[in-house]
Amino acid sequence: MLGKIIRFIFFGNYFVGILAVALTLEATLQLRLPFNSLNYYLLLFLAPTIYYTYAYNKVSTAPSTTNPRNQWYFEHKKFINWSQAVLFISCMLLAINLLYQNFQHILALPLSYWIAIVIIIIAGGLYYGLLPKSFLKFNLRNTGWLKAFVIGFVWACCANVLPLIMLKIETGVGYHDSVLWTWLFIKNWMFCTVNAIIFDIKDYPTDANKHLRTFVVRYGLRRTIFNILIPLLIIGLISLGIFASYKGFGIPQVLFNILPFILTIYVAYSMHRRKNILYYLMVIDGLILFKAICGIIGMQFVH
């Protein structure tokens, strides 16, 4: 029974929705902003859940003895189609309610906000090739090494850009500490990019057969771990220390922000041993949740 619940949460991408909300709450507290409406957080939970489930459901058209997730999608095809319809309708109702309550504020958004919205939508759509091919055939997923940076970029936008847009829409309040915002955006971008590179290790044989030049395919597993992942994380630690000193962060806040980098270095080092799909979904993606929790706890020591 427990195994079924775990597969439902992780294969059904509900954990992805939790990650989106957790990263947003972390960024909101770190930027010392007011919280967005419950309507927005529900929408934020549902949208990535639907997005990822649609993408995986589209390619899981046959039973698989080697991929438990594809097998789960094949066995639960009817339930997934039904739940997707329910979640999509709920998502649309929430979006319509948000639009109805804030229509004039949305129309009054500055041009820079609209540019940010368009960039996020296009990046998210191109990654899984969700845009019609008659419109644009380019698929960021097939660019190999660029894929991880696109994933990190979309998640950083979810955590650091969308809340500011919604805050402007719902309250009219803008944010002006560009130095702190820029550093947090880059930190989230790089952390989620590293996470995506680690996750690519799972698809190494498939990506190699498809000639998809991810970091793992291009450089091999060992070089990816020791020449790319660990150096990036060490650079992240050094930049964290420099920025913490510049901003005058307290020791507890710094320690809690260091912990996710330390744990990710350990996990990256351990990736030379092959793992199953649930390990990647629970532990690798779980690093993002751990980062969000540490960031939230760290802010409790700020006065």
UniProtKB/TrEMBL annotation:
Residue ranges annotated as coiled coil are none
Q: Where does the chain cross the membrane?
A: 5-25, 37-54, 79-100, 112-132, 144-167, 179-199, 220-244, 250-269, 278-302
A Gene Ontology molecular function term for this protein is: transferase activity
**Does the entry feature the keyword Glycosyltransferase, yes or no?**
no
Q: What are the record keywords, sorted?
A: Membrane, Transferase, Transmembrane, Transmembrane helix
Q: Can you name this protein?
A: UbiA prenyltransferase family protein
Q: Which residues form the signal peptide?
A: none
Tell me where on the tree of life, at the top rank, the source sits: Bacteria
